[in-house]
Task: inverse folding
C-alpha cells in the first residue's frame, strides 16, 4: 500500500496569495494512500527540505508529492532531499501549483480547487512510480566547431587551449569569415585583419585543432557525449599534401573576370583562386562552375585548358579529385555559422521578403551595401583602400548612408534590429572622412542604438568631430540622373520632405542567418526561429546552449551579433564544452523509453520516428538459439525521452519510464473525468 | 488455371516450398487453401471469386503458416501491396516467401456467388484499378480481363459525406457504428493488423472500452483508422467480413485520401517505398507547427 507524503508550498506570497495552501494540504489528507500532508511558507528552504526528510523517516513514506513550482525550478532540489532520506529520488514528483495555477488565476476559491486537483493527479502518478536509477554514459572528449568565422575560431582555440581536441569545419576555402573582409572595427578603429589573422594562423598551427576547410557537415548521429559526424570534404581539385601555396596556378588561369566573393563582387578573381592573401589554409581551390576545363566537361567536350596544372611544379592539381566523406567522433558540437546580409534587390529568396527595388541596388552601380563599402575602405580591397565609385572610379564627394534597410521593417524585411549597423555606419562615415577630406557624409537613421562599451562615445565622435550629417528619417526613392544619384526622403525631425544629390549610397542591410541553416539545424535536431536563427535553450540563463544536449551556439547564427559579442559567446561555449568534458562519464536522468518485449510486434515505426536513432533491433531466440522474433530495443544512452515512439507504437509496447501510460491514465482518472 | 497448378506442383515437388497458399473450391464458393503436396496442386483455382487477401496469412504470428515452413503465395495485384507492407514493416523477410502473381481483371464481392464478373457485379474497389499484375511477384501466370473503369460508388459516397455538414456526418457515423458488435473481425482479417497484443485488448490502462456501446465503438474505429493511415492497402476485407455491414471502407479510404493529398503517398507494392509514418520530407506540409 502506498504511503504518500504531500508538501504544499506557499512560495512566500507567490502561491499563498491566490491559493489556500493550508486548505490544499487538508484536502489531500482525504486522498487514499496519503499518510502525511502539510503546508509551509518556503518548502525549498532548508527547514522545508528537512520537513520532507523527516516525514520520509518518521512516516515511512513510499512517495513524495511537492505541490510548489515547476519541476524545471526545484524538482532536482526535492529529489536530492528525497534521496538524502534514503528514498529513491524518482519517487518524488512536483505538482506545479504556481506556474499552472496561482500565477495565472485571480479567483482564490477556484484556484484552490484547481490546486487540489493538480496535486491529486500527481498523488495518483506517484502511487504508480517505480524506483529508477540514473544512467551513466561515456563521453568522447573531442569537440566539433561548425563555422570558421571569428566565433568558430575563438571557440576552437579556447577548447583546444583547454586541452581537448577540436575539429573545425569551414564551408568556404578559407577560415576568417566576414571579419576578414572588414577594414577597421568599431569602436577602436583597429585593423580587422591585423587582429584576426594571428588567430587564424594559431588555429592552423594548433596541435589539437584539425581544420577541415572547404568542407560541410553531411550528417550528425548520436547524442551528447557521443556524436558521430560525417563531414563532406569538397573536392578542391588541389592535392593538399603536394601544394606549397606558391600561387603559380592562379597567375596563369585564363578566366580572370570572375566576381570575387571576398571582395563582394567589386574585385575579380580567377577560376583557380585563393580568396585572399592571408587565407588559411593557403591552398588554391578550383571553382568548378567557372573553370574552363570543367565547363567543357559539363558540355561533354574534351579537356582543353590545363594551364594551372602545367604551371604547377609540384603536380598538385588534380582535376579528378572527388568529394571525400570523413567520419569523426565528438562529444560536443558548437554551431557558429554566422550571417549573411539581406539581399536588397527585387529577387528575394523567400516570398515574405519584398526587397527594396526603390533603392536601385543592382541597377545603380554606385548603390552598394555595407560589406562592399568595407572592401572599398580596406587596404587589401580592390581599390587598395581608396574610396572610389564602382561605376567610374571617381572619388565620391557626397556619400549617403541609409540605416535599417531590411531591419526593423516587418512589412518588407525583418522586424528585428540588426544591432551592428548604427555602429558600422558611424565607422564608415569616419573612414570616409579620413580618406576624403573634402567629402560630406550624410546618414539617414531611425534611431541611433549605441549600447556598448565606448559605442555612444564613438557615434558622437562621428557626428561632432568627424563632420557626419545625421538626418532622422527614411529615404523613399533613389534614381540616377547622369552620374548623380537623386535621393528623395523625409526628415522626421524637421517634418518636411528632403531632396538630395549623392555620388554614392551605402545601404546598411539587415543581418540574416546563413542560407542552409535550416537544413543544418535539422541535421543537428536543434530548433530555430522564424528567421532561421538558432534558438538558445533559455534567453537569459542558458544563452549558448541549444535545446539539444551537447550542442552549443555562438555568434551571429543565434541573433545579430557584433565581434565582441560573438567572441564572448564563443568563449562561453568553450567553457560549457570543457565543463562537459571534465568528467569521463555523464549522468543522465532515466526518463527514457523502454520496450515491452512480450508485446512488441517489431513493426519498427518507433525506429522510423526516433529523431535520435535510439531504436535498435533485438533478436529474440529460442532455446536452440534460433531467432524467433525481431523486436525493438531502445538504447538508454541515446534516448532523450521525447516520447515520440510511445505515441507512435500501435500496440502501446513502448513506454517512457516515469511517464508510463498507467501513470498518465492515473492522473486523468484523478480528475474524475 | 493449368499454368498456376503446374507451377504450384513444380514448386512443391522440387521442394522449393513446403506449401502453396491459394484458393480452392469449397462448399460455399472459393476459399483460401494450403496445399502441401504436389498432387494437391490440382485443387487450386483462380477466378473472379477469389476475393480474399491471402497476405493476412503471412503474418509471423499465424501459427499454421509457421508450422508449414517456406510457402508460396498466390498473389493478386492488389494483395501485392499488403505483402509489400509486411516486408516494409519487417514482418516477413522477402526471401522467405515465393510469390506467384496471377493476372487479374477484377473480382466480385461474394466468393460464394455464381454471378459472372460484369459491370454490375464487380467489387467497388476494382473500379478504376490500373494493376493487372503484381510487380512484386516471382512468377506471373494467367490472363487478365480488361478491368473496369472508375469512379467507384464509394468515392462518390465519400464526396457526398465530405460535402455534408458536420452534424449530418456525425449522425451518419453514429447510426453506422452503433451497429458494431465488437467482434473484431475487421481486425482479424486485416493483413496490416498484426500486433501480438492489440491496443484494444490492453487493460492497464484500458484505452478502449470493450463492450459494444457507442463510446467504445467510436474509439475503436477511430483508433483502427488512425493505425491504418498511410498503411491501408484497400483490399476491402474489413468491409467484406463485417457481419453488420458497416461501410468501413469509407473510413479507410477517406484517411487514405487525406494521406495522399497531404503527404503525396499511396500504398505501394514496392517495399522500398517508405511509409508516411516516420518519413520526414522537407516539403511536408507543416502549417500546424507554429
Result:
Amino acid at each position: 500500500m502506498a504511503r504518500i507524503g504531500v508538501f504544499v508550498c506557499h512560495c512566500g506570497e507567490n502561491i499563498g496569495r491566490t491559493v489556500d495552501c493550508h486548505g490544499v494540504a487538508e484536502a489531500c489528507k482525504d486522498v487514499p494512500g496519503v499518510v502525511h500532508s502539510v503546508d509551509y511558507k518556503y518548502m525549498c528552504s532548508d527547514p522545508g527540505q528537512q520537513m520532507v526528510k523527516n516525514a520520509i523517516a518518521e512516516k515511512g513514506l513510499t512517495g513524495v508529492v511537492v505541490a510548489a513550482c515547476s519541476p524545471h525550478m526545484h524538482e532536482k532540489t526535492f529529489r536530492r532531499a528525497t534521496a538524502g532520506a534514503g528514498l529513491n529520488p524518482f519517487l518524488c514528483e512536483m505538482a506545479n501549483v504556481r506556474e499552472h495555477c496561482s500565477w495565472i488565476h485571480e479567483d482564490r476559491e477556484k484556484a484552490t480547487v484547481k490546486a487540489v486537483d493538480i496535486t491529486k493527479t500527481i498523488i495518483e502518478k506517484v502511487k504508480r512510480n517505480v524506483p529508477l536509477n540514473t544512467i551513466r554514459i561515456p563521453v568522447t572528449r573531442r569537440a566539433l566547431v561548425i563555422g570558421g568565422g571569428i566565433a568558430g575560431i575563438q571557440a576552437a582555440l579556447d577548447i583546444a587551449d583547454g586541452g581537448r581536441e577540436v575539429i573545425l569545419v569551414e564551408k568556404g576555402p578559407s577560415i576568417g569569415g566576414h571579419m576578414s573582409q572588414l577594414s577597421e572595427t568599431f569602436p577602436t578603429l583597429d585593423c580587422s585583419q591585423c587582429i584576426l589573422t594571428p588567430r587564424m594562423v594559431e588555429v592552423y598551427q594548433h596541435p589539437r585543432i584539425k581544420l577541415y576547410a572547404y568542407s560541410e557537415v553531411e550528417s550528425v548521429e548520436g547524442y551528447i557525449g557521443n556524436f558521430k559526424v560525417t563531414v563532406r570534404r569538397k573536392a578542391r581539385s588541389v592535392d593538399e599534401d603536394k601544394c606549397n601555396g606558391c600561387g603559380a596556378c592562379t597567375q596563369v588561369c585564363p578566366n580572370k573576370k570572375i566576381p570575387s566573393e571576398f571582395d563582394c563582387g567589386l574585385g575579380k578573381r580567377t577560376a583557380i583562386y585563393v580568396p585572399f592573401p592571408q587565407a588559411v589554409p593557403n591552398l588554391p581551390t578550383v571553382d568548378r562552375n567557372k573553370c574552363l576545363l570543367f565547363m567543357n566537361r559539363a558540355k561533354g567536350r574534351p579537356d582543353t585548358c590545363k594551364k594551372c596544372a602545367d604551371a604547377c611544379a609540384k603536380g598538385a592539381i588534380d582535376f579528378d579529385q572527388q568529394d571525400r566523406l570523413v567520419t569523426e567522433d565528438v562529444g560536443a558540437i558548437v554551431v557558429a555559422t554566422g550571417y549573411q546580409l539581406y539581399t536588397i534587390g527585387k529577387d528575394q529568396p523567400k516570398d515574405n521578403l519584398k526587397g527594396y527595388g526603390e533603392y536601385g541596388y543592382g541597377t545603380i552601380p554606385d548603390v552598394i551595401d555595407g560589406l562592399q563599402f568595407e572592401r572599398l575602405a580596406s587596404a587589401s580591397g580592390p581599390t587598395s583602400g581608396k574610396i572610389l565609385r564602382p561605376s567610374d572610379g571617381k572619388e565620391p564627394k557626397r556619400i549617403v548612408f541609409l540605416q535599417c534597410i531590411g531591419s526593423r521593417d516587418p512589412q518588407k524585411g525583418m522586424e528585428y534590429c540588426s544591432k551592428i549597423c548604427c555602429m558600422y555606419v558611424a565607422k564608415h562615415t569616419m573612414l570616409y572622412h579620413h580618406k576624403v577630406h573634402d567629402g560630406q557624409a550624410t546618414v539617414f537613421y531611425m534611431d541611433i542604438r549605441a549600447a556598448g562599451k565606448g559605442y555612444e562615445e564613438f557615434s558622437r565622435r562621428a557626428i561632432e568631430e568627424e563632420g557626419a550629417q545625421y538626418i532622422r528619417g527614411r529615404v523613399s526613392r533613389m534614381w540616377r540622373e547622369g552620374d548623380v544619384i537623386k535621393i528623395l526622403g523625409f526628415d522626421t525631425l524637421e517634418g518636411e520632405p528632403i531632396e538630395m544629390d549623392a555620388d554614392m549610397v551605402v545601404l546598411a542591410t539587415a543581418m540574416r542567418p546563413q542560407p542552409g541553416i535550416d537544413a543544418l539545424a535539422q541535421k543537428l535536431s536543434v530548433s530555430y526561429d522564424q528567421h532561421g536563427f538558432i534558438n538558445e535553450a533559455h534567453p537569459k540563463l542558458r544563452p549558448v546552449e541549444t535545446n539539444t544536449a551537447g550542442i552549443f551556439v555562438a555568434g551571429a547564427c543565434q541573433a545579430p551579433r557584433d565581434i565582441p559579442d560573438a567572441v564572448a559567446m564563443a568563449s562561453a561555449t568553450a567553457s560549457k564544452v570543457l565543463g562537459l568534458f571534465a568528467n569521463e562519464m555523464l549522468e543522465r536522468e532515466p526518463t527514457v523509453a523502454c520496450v515491452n518485449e512480450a508485446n512488441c510486434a517489431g513493426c519498427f515505426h518507433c525506429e522510423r520516428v526516433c529523431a535520435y536513432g535510439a531504436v535498435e533491433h533485438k533478436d529474440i531466440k529460442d532455446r536452440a538459439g534460433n531467432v524467433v522474433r525481431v523486436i525493438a530495443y531502445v538504447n538508454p544512452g541515446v534516448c532523450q525521452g521525447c516520447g515520440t515512439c510511445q505515441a507512435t507504437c500501435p500496440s502501446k509496447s513502448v513506454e517512457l519510464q516515469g511517464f508510463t501510460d498507467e501513470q498518465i491514465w492515473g492522473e486523468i482518472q484523478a480528475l474524475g473525468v | 488455371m493449368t499454368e498456376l497448378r503446374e507451377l504450384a506442383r513444380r514448386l512443391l515437388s522440387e521442394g522449393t516450398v513446403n506449401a502453396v497458399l491459394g484458393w480452392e473450391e469449397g462448399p460455399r464458393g472459393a476459399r483460401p487453401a494450403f496445399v502441401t503436396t504436389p498432387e494437391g496442386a490440382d485443387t487450386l483455382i483462380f477466378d473472379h471469386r477469389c476475393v480474399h487477401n491471402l497476405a493476412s496469412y503471412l503474418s509471423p504470428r499465424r501459427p499454421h503458416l509457421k508450422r508449414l515452413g517456406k510457402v508460396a503465395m498466390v498473389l493478386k495485384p492488389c494483395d501485392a501491396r499488403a505483402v509489400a507492407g509486411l516486408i516494409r514493416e519487417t514482418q516477413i523477410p522477402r526471401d522467405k516467401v515465393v510469390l506467384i502473381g496471377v493476372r487479374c481483371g477484377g473480382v466480385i464481392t461474394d466468393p460464394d456467388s455464381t454471378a459472372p464478373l460484369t459491370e454490375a457485379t464487380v467489387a467497388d474497389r476494382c473500379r478504376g484499378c490500373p494493376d493487372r499484375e503484381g510487380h512484386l511477384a516471382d512468377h506471373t501466370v494467367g490472363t487478365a480481363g480488361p478491368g473496369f473503369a472508375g469512379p467507384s460508388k464509394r468515392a462518390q459516397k465519400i464526396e457526398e459525406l465530405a460535402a455534408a455538414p458536420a452534424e449530418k456526418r456525425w449522425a451518419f457515423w453514429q447510426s453506422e457504428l452503433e451497429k458494431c458488435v465488437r467482434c473484431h473481425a475487421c481486425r482479424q482479417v486485416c493483413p496490416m493488423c498484426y500486433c501480438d497484443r492489440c491496443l484494444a485488448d490492453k487493460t492497464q490502462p484500458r484505452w478502449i472500452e470493450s463492450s459494444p456501446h457507442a463510446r467504445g465503438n467510436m474509439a475503436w474505429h477511430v483508433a483502427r483508422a488512425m493505425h491504418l493511415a498511410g498503411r491501408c492497402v484497400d483490399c476491402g476485407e474489413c468491409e467484406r467480413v463485417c457481419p453488420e455491414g458497416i461501410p468501413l471502407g469509407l473510413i479507410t479510404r477517406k484517411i487514405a485520401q487525406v494521406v495522399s493529398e497531404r503527404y503525396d503517398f499511396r500504398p505501394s507494392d514496392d517495399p522500398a517505398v517508405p511509409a508516411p509514418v516516420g518519413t520526414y520530407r522537407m516539403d511536408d506540409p507543416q502549417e500546424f507547427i507554429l
Summary: Residues 342-511 of chain A form a domain with the FAD/NAD(P)-binding domain fold (CATH 3.50.50.60). Chain A has a mean pLDDT of 94.
